[in-house]
């Protein structure tokens, strides 16, 4: 490894930069205020950069931060972004850019929603074999083996259904 490679290794940005640390050290109220000053931008071109998005939304107000989430396994962008402004009024101005063209694609601009700690939209107890496909909710009185008797054969239990 020559000297220029070592310099790159030293100057390479880390995933948890000090700027990202500021967001994690914020109180819940500060995060809610940050979310109220932020927008969600959907259908973003996969080749778009944070600088391009910042220039696009800079006419709405001063942009504090642009976040483009990436897939952790492939490293490819997910196709949406978050833009945080310094003023709340900038969000209303940015909402007027909904369904406009950005890099040849029609983008969707919405106010960013605030996550509620401890609230999930998925039911984890239905994972791992409890669910019966999409939209099925198991009743607590549902028993798939109702009317079924188990008989022992060769040391194994085999279901046997009463036909009458």
TrEMBL record:
Q: Where in the cell is it found?
A: Cytoplasm
Cross-referenced Pfam families = RRM_1 (PF00076)
Top-level taxonomic group: Eukaryota
Keyword annotations from UniProtKB, A to Z: Cytoplasm, RNA-binding
Every copy of the RRM domain together lies at 37-114
The record's section on SUPFAM superfamilies has: RNA-binding domain, RBD
What InterPro entries does the entry give? Nucleotide-bd_a/b_plait_sf (IPR012677), RBD_domain_sf (IPR035979), RRM_dom (IPR000504)
Q: What is this protein called?
A: RRM domain-containing protein
């Amino acid at each position: 490894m020559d000297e220029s490679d070592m310099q790159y290794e030293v100057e390479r940005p880390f995933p948890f930069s000090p700027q990202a640390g500021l967001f994690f050290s914020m109180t819940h109220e500060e995060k809610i205020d940050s979310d109220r000053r932020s927008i969600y931008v959907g259908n973003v071109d996969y080749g778009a950069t944070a600088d391009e998005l910042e220039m696009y939304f800079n006419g709405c107000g001063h942009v504090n931060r642009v976040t483009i989430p990436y897939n952790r396994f492939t490293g490819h962008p997910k196709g949406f972004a978050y833009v945080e402004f310094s003023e709340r009024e900038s969000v209303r101005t940015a909402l007027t850019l909904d369904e406009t063209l950005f890099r040849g694609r029609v983008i969707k601009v919405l106010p960013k929603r605030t996550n509620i700690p401890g609230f999930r939209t998925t039911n984890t107890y239905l994972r791992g074999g409890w669910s019966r496909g999409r939209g099925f909710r198991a009743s607590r009185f549902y028993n798939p083996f109702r009317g079924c008797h188990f008989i022992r054969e060769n040391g194994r239990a085999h279901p046997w259904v009463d036909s009458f």
